[in-house]
Amino acid sequence: MYGKSVREKLEANNYKLTSQRAVVLDVMSANRGQHLSADEVFFIAKKEMPNIGIATVYRTLEKMAAMDVLHKTVFDQGKYRYELCDENSHHHHHIICLDCGAIFEVQEDLLHSLEQHLEEQGFKIVDHELKLYAYCPNCLKVEE
Ligand SMILES: [Zn+2]
Ligand SMILES: [Zn+2]
Ligand SMILES: [Zn+2]
Q1: What is the pTM of this model?
Q2: In what order do the strands lie in the sheet containing 80-84?
Q3: Which residues, by Cβ under 5 Å, contact ligand 1, an ion?
Q4: Closest by alpha carbon to 2, among 33, 25, 36, 35?
Protein backbone atom coordinates (compact mmCIF):
# COMPACT_ATOMS: atom_id res chain seq x y z
CA MET A 1 0.00 0.00 0.00
CA TYR A 2 0.98 3.61 -0.35
CA GLY A 3 1.86 5.73 2.62
CA LYS A 4 0.91 8.96 4.29
CA SER A 5 2.82 11.27 1.96
CA VAL A 6 0.84 9.99 -1.04
CA ARG A 7 -2.43 10.58 0.77
CA GLU A 8 -1.31 14.07 1.75
CA LYS A 9 -0.43 14.98 -1.81
CA LEU A 10 -3.82 13.76 -3.04
CA GLU A 11 -5.57 15.78 -0.37
CA ALA A 12 -3.48 18.89 -0.98
CA ASN A 13 -4.59 18.73 -4.62
CA ASN A 14 -8.20 17.98 -3.78
CA TYR A 15 -7.89 14.84 -5.81
CA LYS A 16 -10.71 12.42 -5.07
CA LEU A 17 -9.77 8.77 -5.31
CA THR A 18 -12.61 7.40 -7.39
CA SER A 19 -12.63 3.63 -7.71
CA GLN A 20 -10.94 3.83 -11.12
CA ARG A 21 -8.20 6.15 -9.88
CA ALA A 22 -7.73 3.94 -6.84
CA VAL A 23 -7.14 0.92 -9.08
CA VAL A 24 -4.43 2.82 -10.97
CA LEU A 25 -2.78 3.83 -7.70
CA ASP A 26 -3.01 0.25 -6.42
CA VAL A 27 -1.29 -1.03 -9.55
CA MET A 28 1.52 1.47 -9.02
CA SER A 29 2.00 0.65 -5.36
CA ALA A 30 1.83 -3.10 -5.99
CA ASN A 31 4.59 -2.72 -8.60
CA ARG A 32 7.11 -0.67 -6.67
CA GLY A 33 10.52 -0.75 -8.26
CA GLN A 34 9.01 -1.40 -11.69
CA HIS A 35 8.83 1.24 -14.36
CA LEU A 36 5.49 0.78 -16.04
CA SER A 37 4.24 2.32 -19.25
CA ALA A 38 0.63 3.48 -19.42
CA ASP A 39 -0.20 0.42 -21.53
CA GLU A 40 1.24 -1.90 -18.92
CA VAL A 41 -0.67 -0.15 -16.14
CA PHE A 42 -3.84 -0.46 -18.24
CA PHE A 43 -3.22 -4.17 -18.80
CA ILE A 44 -2.78 -4.86 -15.07
CA ALA A 45 -5.63 -2.55 -14.03
CA LYS A 46 -8.02 -4.34 -16.41
CA LYS A 47 -7.64 -7.53 -14.39
CA GLU A 48 -8.93 -5.65 -11.35
CA MET A 49 -11.53 -3.62 -13.16
CA PRO A 50 -12.39 -4.98 -16.60
CA ASN A 51 -14.34 -1.88 -17.68
CA ILE A 52 -11.61 0.66 -16.94
CA GLY A 53 -10.75 2.77 -19.99
CA ILE A 54 -7.28 3.48 -21.35
CA ALA A 55 -8.06 7.22 -21.43
CA THR A 56 -8.82 7.17 -17.71
CA VAL A 57 -5.57 5.37 -17.03
CA TYR A 58 -3.60 7.91 -19.08
CA ARG A 59 -5.30 10.86 -17.42
CA THR A 60 -4.86 9.46 -13.93
CA LEU A 61 -1.16 8.76 -14.47
CA GLU A 62 -0.55 12.24 -15.86
CA LYS A 63 -2.44 13.90 -13.05
CA MET A 64 -0.64 11.91 -10.38
CA ALA A 65 2.70 12.70 -11.99
CA ALA A 66 1.83 16.40 -11.91
CA MET A 67 1.06 16.03 -8.19
CA ASP A 68 4.38 14.31 -7.59
CA VAL A 69 2.68 11.11 -6.48
CA LEU A 70 4.26 9.35 -9.44
CA HIS A 71 7.58 9.92 -11.02
CA LYS A 72 7.57 9.98 -14.80
CA THR A 73 10.60 9.38 -16.99
CA VAL A 74 11.13 8.86 -20.70
CA PHE A 75 13.10 5.74 -21.40
CA ASP A 76 12.60 4.06 -24.75
CA GLN A 77 11.38 5.80 -27.92
CA GLY A 78 9.87 8.72 -26.10
CA LYS A 79 7.53 6.49 -24.14
CA TYR A 80 6.81 7.57 -20.58
CA ARG A 81 7.20 5.15 -17.74
CA TYR A 82 5.80 5.76 -14.28
CA GLU A 83 6.68 4.66 -10.79
CA LEU A 84 5.45 5.55 -7.34
CA CYS A 85 7.54 8.28 -5.69
CA ASP A 86 9.44 6.96 -2.73
CA GLU A 87 8.23 8.23 0.59
CA ASN A 88 10.06 11.46 1.38
CA SER A 89 13.29 10.14 -0.03
CA HIS A 90 15.33 11.39 -2.90
CA HIS A 91 14.37 9.93 -6.26
CA HIS A 92 16.84 7.42 -7.58
CA HIS A 93 18.62 7.35 -10.90
CA HIS A 94 18.46 4.83 -13.69
CA ILE A 95 20.79 2.80 -15.85
CA ILE A 96 19.21 1.62 -19.08
CA CYS A 97 20.65 -1.32 -20.99
CA LEU A 98 21.04 -0.49 -24.66
CA ASP A 99 20.76 -4.14 -25.56
CA CYS A 100 17.87 -5.71 -23.62
CA GLY A 101 16.24 -2.45 -22.51
CA ALA A 102 16.22 -3.44 -18.84
CA ILE A 103 16.07 -0.55 -16.41
CA PHE A 104 18.17 -0.72 -13.27
CA GLU A 105 18.03 1.63 -10.34
CA VAL A 106 21.06 3.43 -9.00
CA GLN A 107 20.86 4.11 -5.30
CA GLU A 108 24.19 5.85 -4.87
CA ASP A 109 23.94 9.55 -5.56
CA LEU A 110 27.26 11.27 -6.07
CA LEU A 111 25.47 14.29 -7.45
CA HIS A 112 24.72 15.52 -3.96
CA SER A 113 28.33 16.46 -3.40
CA LEU A 114 28.35 18.18 -6.77
CA GLU A 115 25.22 20.10 -5.78
CA GLN A 116 26.87 21.16 -2.57
CA HIS A 117 29.93 22.29 -4.45
CA LEU A 118 27.80 24.37 -6.84
CA GLU A 119 25.78 25.89 -4.01
CA GLU A 120 29.03 27.06 -2.48
CA GLN A 121 29.54 28.94 -5.75
CA GLY A 122 26.21 30.69 -5.28
CA PHE A 123 23.80 28.48 -7.22
CA LYS A 124 20.52 27.34 -5.75
CA ILE A 125 20.07 23.79 -7.08
CA VAL A 126 16.44 22.75 -7.36
CA ASP A 127 16.58 19.33 -8.92
CA HIS A 128 18.65 17.05 -11.08
CA GLU A 129 18.08 14.13 -13.35
CA LEU A 130 20.53 11.53 -14.50
CA LYS A 131 20.22 8.65 -16.91
CA LEU A 132 23.04 6.30 -17.72
CA TYR A 133 23.11 4.15 -20.83
CA ALA A 134 25.06 0.95 -20.67
CA TYR A 135 25.29 -2.73 -21.52
CA CYS A 136 24.12 -4.69 -18.53
CA PRO A 137 26.10 -7.58 -17.00
CA ASN A 138 23.62 -10.14 -18.39
CA CYS A 139 23.96 -8.93 -21.96
CA LEU A 140 27.74 -8.75 -21.71
CA LYS A 141 27.82 -12.34 -20.48
CA VAL A 142 25.92 -13.64 -23.53
CA GLU A 143 28.33 -11.99 -25.92
CA GLU A 144 31.41 -13.57 -24.41
ZN1 LIG B 1 20.93 -5.96 -21.00
ZN1 LIG C 1 13.07 3.88 -10.86
ZN1 LIG D 1 19.94 12.23 -7.49
Answers
A1: 0.79
A2: 36-37, 80-84, 70-74
A3: 97, 99-100, 136, 139
A4: 25
- Rounded to the nearest 5°, which phi and psi values hold at 131? -130, 130
Residue-number span of the structural domain to which 138 is assigned = 93-143
pLDDT tens-digit series, residues 40-75: 999 999 999 999 999 999 999 999 999 989 989 888
Question: Mapping DSSP to helix (H, G, I), strand (E, B) and coil, where does residue 30 land?
Answer: helix
Whether residue 103 is found in the same domain as residue 38? no
Shortest-distance ligand to the CA of residue 84: 2
Q: Which ligand is nearest to the CA of 111?
A: 3
CATH code of the domain containing 35 = 1.10.10.10
Distance of CA 117 to the CA centre of its chain: 28
Radius of gyration of the chain (CA): 17
